[in-house]
């Protein structure tokens, strides 16, 4: 835990008592603050009270003595309307911040030069964060990973020299961290997302930009420049004197890192040098993972990691659970769990990464279905449809893709495994990438992915992928 000493002797309101909220309460109390905890959910309030925190209805108490409101990222700060607790805070001039801001203040107080890597982007930030943490560990660093990827930032060990914090950040968390100042800031990409919480794409992009714009003096801003929003951001950072490393997986760059023929290349003027090779790394298949790997490699280079250590780290990266996770192999058949592919855009990444696919798809359908995936249909040898979306997906596939109405995951796996094995293909891939939510048959995508893994690993002759 990171004790928050910046509010020692002061009273602080904490709204939102999920994992990060309770961690904030514990860190503030450990640092000497008096905490008043609140939530709209009575069960969360009861848990906080049971943990020993003072709870109250913030609608009825006086705000005069509150030094700050620590707000959960799940509560809106601006759009579609500020949360009622935000309005209460603004009435009395009380600052509204989040747990990432508390971390930043503690780091500046106690270890301002401790390595702090902050990662954001519309897509790929979890994989990039996990890969950076893996590379740092391979290089021998004491590494702490958290934020949006899982562990609340204040539940990690405190910043100190020689200890790297690799922190994934959503736009909501950035919005609540006005003094965010990483030593390395990474903006992977920007596309339309979370407009309900930011009002416009322009505002969403502006919030994302703050992560790299806030990089501390002497630090490095790493920006993927394959979309127009990020290209403009990189140019603005250049103009104000930030050290910018541009990343591209689509085009060679005159300066920066780009990917060409599964090789990460560093360009500086006329000079070109090979940094690392991605070919054959199953956990980093696909153009989207090449972007993630290039961003992580730029971070490793900024941290002074040698290229041979970087290459070893890339090759040993196990990937993330439920995201193109290779769960087993039997003969010519590779089994891949991409349960996180809960919509067509996400499933497209997986479908674009393999050639001969036995595709398990379906679940609780989302708007648009799989109509946007038609360019990938030639890669699909056969589809096995499950859940509520089966009939709709069957209509979309029509005569273009052979398919079975499997209904349930166990039936789909058994059929796909059999068909893939007798195909005679050099490498057939049984791919779970549902393009659907899981809620018709499973409580969440993690449980669905775990079920896929368990069923596959119970098949006779299946061996783990090394």
Automatic annotation (TrEMBL):
UniProt EC number: 6.3.2.9
Keyword ATP-binding: yes
Domain Mur ligase C-terminal intervals: 322-436
All copies of domain KARI N-terminal Rossmann, residue ranges: 8-73
Subcellular location: Cytoplasm
One GO CC term on file: cytoplasm
Keywords: ATP-binding, Cell cycle, Cell division, Cell shape, Cell wall biogenesis/degradation, Cytoplasm, Ligase, Nucleotide-binding, Peptidoglycan synthesis
Domain Mur ligase central: 119-300
Recorded metabolic or biological pathway in which this protein acts: Cell wall biogenesis; peptidoglycan biosynthesis
Top-level taxon of the source organism: Bacteria
InterPro entries (UniProt xref): Folylpolyglutamate_synth_CS, KARI_N, Mur-like_cat_sf, Mur_ligase_C, Mur_ligase_C_dom_sf, Mur_ligase_cen, MurD, NAD(P)-bd_dom_sf
Binding site for ATP: 121-127
GO BP term, example: cell wall organization
Catalysed reactions, as listed in the record: UDP-N-acetyl-alpha-D-muramoyl-L-alanine + D-glutamate + ATP = UDP-N-acetyl-alpha-D-muramoyl-L-alanyl-D-glutamate + ADP + phosphate + H(+)
Pfam families (alphabetical): KARI_N, Mur_ligase_C, Mur_ligase_M
Function: Cell wall formation. Catalyzes the addition of glutamate to the nucleotide precursor UDP-N-acetylmuramoyl-L-alanine (UMA).
Membership in a protein family: Belongs to the MurCDEF family.
Protein name per UniProt: UDP-N-acetylmuramoylalanine--D-glutamate ligase
Source species of the chain: Bradyrhizobium uaiense
């Amino acid at each position: 835990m990171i004790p928050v000493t910046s509010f020692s002797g002061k009273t602080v309101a904490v709204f939102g008592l999920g994992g990060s909220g309770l961690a904030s309460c514990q860190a503030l109390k450990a640092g000497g603050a008096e905490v008043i905890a609140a939530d709209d959910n009575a069960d969360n309030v009861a848990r906080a009270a049971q943990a020993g925190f003072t709870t109250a209805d913030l609608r009825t108490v006086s705000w005069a003595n509150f030094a700050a409101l620590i707000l959960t990222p799940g509560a809106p700060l601006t759009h579609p309307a500020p949360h009622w607790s935000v309005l209460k805070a603004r009435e009395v001039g009380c600052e509204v911040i989040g747990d990432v801001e508390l971390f930043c203040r503690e780091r500046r107080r106690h270890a301002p030069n401790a390595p702090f890597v902050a990662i954001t982007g519309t897509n790929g930030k979890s994989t990039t964060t996990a890969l950076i943490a893996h590379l740092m560990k391979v290089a021998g660093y004491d590494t702490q990973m958290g934020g949006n990827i899982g562990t609340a930032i204040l539940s990690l060990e405190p910043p100190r020299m020689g200890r790297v914090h690799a922190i994934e950040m959503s736009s909501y968390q950035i919005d609540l961290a006005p003094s965010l100042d990483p030593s390395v800031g990474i903006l992977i990409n920007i596309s339309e997302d979370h407009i309900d919480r930011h009002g416009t794409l322009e505002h969403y992009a502006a919030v994302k930009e703050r992560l790299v714009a806030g990089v501390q003096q002497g630090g490095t801003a790493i920006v993927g420049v394959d979309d127009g929003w990020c290209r403009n951001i990189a140019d603005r950072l250049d103009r104000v004197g930030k050290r910018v490393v541009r990343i591209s997986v689509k085009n060679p760059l005159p300066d920066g890192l780009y990917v060409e023929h599964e090789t990460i290349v560093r360009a500086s003027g006329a000079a070109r040098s090979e940094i690392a090779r991605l070919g054959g790394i199953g956990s980093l298949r696909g153009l989207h993972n090449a972007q993630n790997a290039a961003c992580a490699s730029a971070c490793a280079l900024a941290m002074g990691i040698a290229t041979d250590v970087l290459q070893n780290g890339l090759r040993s990266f196990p990937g993330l659970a439920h995201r193109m996770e290779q769960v087993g192999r039997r003969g010519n058949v590779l089994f891949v769990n991409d349960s996180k592919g809960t919509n067509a855009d996400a499933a497209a990444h997986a479908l674009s990464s393999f050639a001969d696919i036995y595709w398990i798809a379906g679940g609780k359908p989302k708007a648009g279905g799989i109509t946007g995936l038609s360019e990938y249909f030639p890669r699909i040898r056969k589809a096995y449809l499950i859940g509520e979306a089966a009939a709709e997906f069957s209509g979309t596939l029509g005569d273009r893709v052979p398919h079975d109405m499997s209904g349930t995951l166990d039936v789909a796996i058994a059929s796909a495994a059999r068909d893939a094995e007798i195909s005679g293909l050099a490498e057939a891939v049984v791919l779970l990438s549902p393009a659907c939510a899981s809620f018709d048959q499973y409580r969440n995508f993690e449980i669905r992915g775990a079920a896929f893994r368990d069923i596959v690993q119970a098949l006779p002759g299946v061996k783990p992928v090394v």
